[in-house]
Write a structure and sequence with these properties.
This protein has 118 residues and is mostly helical. Helix 1 runs antiparallel to helix 2 and helix 1 crosses helix 3. The protein has one domain. It is built from three helices and no strands.
């Protein structure tokens, strides 16, 4: 199925928000090291839920569909998260600890700035 530019942007945003939510769930549930507030997390999850509700046909095409935070509850088991999410979460946590000390949600990135090789 061919998608419009807007469809591709929505798919990309759904994937981005899923990744953010999964990373922060991993940090919260598995590592017990939340680096954003519950309120900040809720903002991302609400945006994701709205996009998915408004675009149900595009939801399935975004990355991490089987791990979608709108469909599953948080888990404290590392095996319940894709390896890529674990890598990104560990990278963000390392960045936070080495460069920025204790979290301040106002200036903390929600995604790692550096890519991690697969």
């Amino acid at each position: 199925m061919a998608h419009t530019k807007l469809d591709r942007q929505v798919i990309s945003e759904i994937a981005r928000l899923r990744t953010i939510c999964l990373i922060h769930r991993y940090l919260y549930y598995v590592k017990s090291e939340a680096i954003i507030s519950d309120q900040a997390y809720d903002v991302h999850e609400r945006k994701l839920k709205k996009l998915v509700a408004d675009n149900p046909t595009l939801e399935y095409e975004a990355d991490n569909f089987s791990y979608c935070p709108t469909r599953i509850v948080g888990s404290s088991l590392a095996d319940d998260y894709p390896r890529r999410i674990e890598q990104l979460a560990e990278s963000l946590l390392k960045y936070h600890k080495e460069d920025h000390g204790k979290p301040d949600a106002s200036d903390m990135p929600v995604l790692p700035s550096a890519s991690i090789p697969e």
